[in-house]
Amino acid sequence: MSSLEKKESFGSLVQLEPDSVGEKFIHFERRTMRSVDLHIIPIVALLYSFALLDRINLGAARTAGMGPALHLEVGARFSICTVIYFIPYIILQIPGNLIIRKFGARRYLAFCATGWGAVQLGMGFVTTWGYLTLCRMLLGVFEASFFPGIVYIISSWYTRYEVQKRLAFFYLLSLTISGFSSILAYAFSLLDGKRNIAGWSWIFIIEGSVTLFLAVISFFLLPDFPELNTFLTPDQTQFVLRRVEEDRGDSVPDQLTVRKVLHHLGDWTLWAYGIMFMCCTLPAYALAYFISIILKGLGWGTTTALLLSTPPYAPAFASAVFFAWLSDKTRHRAGYILIQGLISITGLCLTAFSPQNNVRYAGIFLLNAGSSGCIPSILAYSANNVVGSSKRSISSALTVAFGGVGGIIASTVYREQDFPRYLPGLWVTLGAQFLLLFLVGATSLHFTRMNRLSREGKLAAPLEGQPGFFYTL
């Protein structure tokens, strides 16, 4: 279906034009998009923050006493418990995004949240490290579809140069809330002995209960795709669909087939986005799982290590939002990913090689700022350079799946025998940042070349099959 045919299929959609003065149209646009923002970003950010809390509280629980209780110090048990989560998390990313439209985003994502909340609650009652490992695997099953599903939904609502700010706010609000996981873990661990339950168990029980509560609420509040929404008026819905159609021509979902999925997976740039995402999530997961343990190894006590784990997340929010705003304003992605990658490298070098603990701690601030900012930047970079609902679904799922690979690497390269400095893990993380810079350069050169050939009329077909489309650098 051509872009013109798609527009004609909306009926009154094409009749919605700004008035002669334009003031009513501007007011209508602002009111509509403000409503979209308020109905999407806060609820998904809040729910995903608890997904992150439930995913990363393993390190805090171990610091609070779970390690000796479940004998996690024996061999590689802690790494096994950590890494098992990512196996179903990776495998189920693409299938989850392929069926999300079939079941409806709101119902499907609320079901996932209920599942992982129940598992998290159950983790508070495990008695052996084997049961803990089983719960971690189930956690990966239920969380697999949530993040790529939300990225898919957000990118369906906004134009290409609006999406990074929204992705940044969604992800960073979640990250900031989850950044208090160590403080919350410390507070919950103070319940040690209440009802004959260990302090580390209370961490899982309370956080799992809150997740279940939010999952019930989310069934009524989670957003769906634009054409299925219930909070906008018909004219507002048509307006949103129209602006997406004019921006990239994919407001109408294309039919999904096995042949089409395999065709999309043959695009090497989708795999490049995934590997780039893996590179920037590796340090994020390393900090999430090991920051309190690393700080304790630097000589701080349990309480201080847990409390000092939160401050590095504050400047990360400000930095990433600034780069997201600048990126959308200048309609440029790759250069800002490079800058934030260099910030990560600087922080890694300080943390790995400085002899002073305060400098190493300062390096964690820079590392967290760089990696946290790269995550929404890469998601926006990939979302801007695909056209079509089916390809957008595959791209977001594949990208986030590679984030799980970053989690596996982080879980295995930070080994018990390398405590307290974890130098081999830091070296691997540093190498991943250089790989990120290389792939950003490679995709930028490729997109520059394809844009030039398209402008010169030397291509047999329009880029991404969409006339007038050009890749975002």
Describe this structure in words.
InterPro entries: MFS, MFS_dom, MFS_trans_sf. Its main location: membrane. This protein has a single domain (35-249, 263-465), classed as Growth Hormone, Chain: A (Up-down Bundle), CATH 1.20.1250.20. The chain is mainly alpha-helical. It is 75% helix and 0% strand. It has helices at 3-8, 23-70, 77-83, 86-91, 93-103, 105-123, 129-143, 146-157, 163-178, 181-189, 199-221, 234-248, 258-265, 268-297, 302-307, 313-330, 334-353, 357-384, 389-413, 423-455. The two termini are 27 Å apart. The protein is globular. The chain contains 20 helices and no strands. Helix 9 packs antiparallel against helix 18.
What's the short version?
By secondary structure, the protein is mostly helical. It contains 20 helices and no strands. Keywords: Membrane, Transmembrane, Transmembrane helix, Transport.
Share of helix, binned: over 70%
Q: Any guess at the CATH architecture?
A: Up-down Bundle
Q: What average pLDDT do the residues reach?
A: 85
CATH topology: Growth Hormone, Chain: A
Percent of sequence in beta strands: under 5%
Rough outline: globular
N-C termini distance? 27 Å
CATH class, anyone? Answer: Mainly Alpha
Structural class category: mainly alpha
Question: What's the total count of β strands?
Answer: 0
By DSSP (H or I, 4+ residues per run), the number of helices equals 20
